[in-house]
Every structure is written in structure tokens, then in C-alpha cells.
Amino acid sequence: MIPSAFEYERATSVDDAIAKLAATGGTGKLIAGGHSLVPLMKLRLNEPTTLIDIARISALVGIRERDGLIEIGAGTVHHDVATSALLGAQCPVVSDTAATIGDPQVRNRGTIGGSLAHADPAADYPAMLLAVDAQIHLQGAGGPRVVAAEDFFQDLFTVDLGPDEIITAVRFAPVRAAAYAKLYQRASRFAIVGVAAALEVTDGAISAARVGLTGALSSAVRLSGVETALVGQPATAATVATAATGAGAALSDVSADLHASEAYRRAMVSVFTKRALEGALARLSA
Ligand SMILES: Cc1cc2nc3c(=O)[nH]c(=O)nc-3n(C[C@H](O)[C@H](O)[C@H](O)COP(=O)(O)OP(=O)(O)OC[C@H]3O[C@@H](n4cnc5c(N)ncnc54)[C@H](O)[C@@H]3O)c2cc1C
Predict the structure, then answer these.
(1) What pTM did the predictor assign?
(2) Which CATH architecture has domain 178-284?
(3) Per-residue pLDDT tens for 196-211?
(4) What CATH number does the domain located at 58-172 have?
(5) What are phi and psi of 257, to 5 degrees?
(6) Ligand 1 binding site (Cβ under 6 Å of any ligand atom)
(7) The domain 7-53: what is its CATH number?
(8) How far is Cα 30 from Cα 14, in angstroms, rounded to an integer?
(9) Domain locations along the chain
């Protein structure tokens, strides 16, 4: 279908984008890569009066170290995340996750900020950002704000982001022993089930664990039961296999659609939790 008529403006800075957004009185939308928004507009599920293009704001683009953390600008495209030498060396789960997104066209246009704002229940980044305990940096007319990933993803296509706010960056402490495992839908490569796991190990025992899940529920969540089962146990294949076993059965409101039944998704949550944890363990010795 053809979208409704709209005005187009290009923002030159974050402040300019916020001002332009405010000027629309809530009827405008930011556009970055357009790979989620444009399909919605074509279906007329979203009919903004004005599109404010933020794709050429250089301050929103790039991957850098800042204050001991890694910062990814919200306008950074998936391809640049997937191929970042910094991420590959210090926090490879992030680049691995980006590399699983869509196809080359999607990865070269779609941005991490757009993915987080859109919050598709099958998007890959949310599970990974939960596992690395990321913080999401926002800016609006009321000033800057920081939200933990855990509080940001609230429900189906619903996040803690005001109508006048823009995501500027995500930040996290690098985690080496972390991995992402995904059962993907063959055409789009969206996650039917995606699990990201991050482990800290002290003297051979798991001292901390964070496990994020996407694809199976209305939004990304942490698998707190799995995390609890891991902490204090030896960092072994047997431990992660035991902890992952009941991961799917423990969930409520598991999604069912043409790609996977509820029972299949539950089974795959356990399988891919085990694979993600095994991947994290493998990185301990890499
Ligand atoms: C064929 C296809 C396959 C795909 N496969 C996958 C996949 O396997 N895994 C996956 O995770 N995703 C997948 N996607 C989605 C893709 O990752 C999108 O690029 C992403 O969801 C949105 O990013 P964008 O930059 O294109 O955002 P846009 O479409 O431009 O915007 C999406 C929403 O975010 C808002 N927005 C954009 N940037 C900001 C910002 N900085 N601050 C606040 N709001 C903002 C917009 O207003 C809009 O509401 C796929 C998409 C397509 C078309």
C-alpha cells in the first residue's frame, strides 16, 4: 500500500530533532533507517504528519569507549555494530547479535536506536542488552535521562520513551563471557526465540549470571529462574544444562503464531538458553 501524505524534514542535530519533534505536537515521527517505520506507514498502521530524518546526525553515530564503558550511538547501523573491532575484542556478544539481524540491506540501513524504540517482540538487541546490563540514554525537551534496559522494555512495542524524546546512545561495561543463540525465522531472520547469556566466574564458580530472552513473549525479559539456578554453581557444561532445562516451562504467556506453536517455543527457549550459556562458557577459555 501507499502511505498517507506526510511532510519530510531533516534534523541537523539532536537538539534540532527534539525541537522539530515538539513542533509537530505529537503527530510527527523520527525516522532513522526506516526499516520498521516505513512498513508500518505502508500498512497505514502509523500515519505521521511529519517525518523527521535523524539519519545524518553525526553525533548519533559511532562506537567508542567512554569512562570505562562502551558507547554505541543510537544512529549506528547494524552492519557497523556487527563489524566493530572494539566490540569484537571487548564484548563480542554485541557484534555477534547484530550480525544475526535481517539481511545486508537491513543491516546497512537499520539502526540500534530504531530497533530499541520500535521494540518488536522478536528483535534481537533487547535480549542482548538485558544480558550485558546496558543503559539507554535519552534526551528530550526536559533534558537527558538514563534508563536501564531492564526498565526500558515494557510490553509489546512499548518502551519507556516519551513522545518528545530521542534515544541518543546505549552504554554498557564490556563482558567477554557472553553469547547469543537464536532460532530465526527463515525469511526475515527475526528471532522465533533468541537468548543472550552473560556470566561472571570466580575461582571456577559462577558468581553472576544475566540471561535475556526475546521472541517468545510480548517483550524481552530476563530469565531470572535460570540466573538463580546458575549462581554459586561450578562453571561447567553440566551446570548450564541443568539450569536451562526448565527455562521454557517456567514462562507464562508464551507467544504462538504461524512460525511456532506455544509448545515449540517453550521447548526452544530451553534449547537456546543452553546454547547461549554454552557459548558464554566457551568464551571463558577463549
Ligand atoms: C526484512 C526485514 C528483516 C528484519 N530482520 C530483523 C531481525 O532479524 N532482527 C531484528 O532485530 N530486526 C530485524 N528487522 C528490523 C530492523 O532491525 C530495523 O532496522 C529496526 O527494527 C528499526 O531500525 P530503523 O533504524 O530502521 O528504525 P526506523 O524504522 O527508522 O524507526 C523505527 C521506530 O523507531 C523510532 N526511532 C528511530 N530512531 C530513534 C531514536 N534514535 N530515538 C527514538 N526513536 C527512534 C522511529 O520514530 C520509529 O517509531 C528487520 C527489518 C526488515 C525490514
Answers:
(1) 0.97
(2) 2-Layer Sandwich (3.30)
(3) 999 999 999 999 999 9
(4) 3.30.465.10
(5) -155, -170
(6) 29-37, 54, 74, 101-102, 106, 110-111, 113-115, 117-118, 120, 123-124, 166-167, 188-190
(7) 3.30.43.10
(8) 11
(9) 7-53, 58-172, 178-284
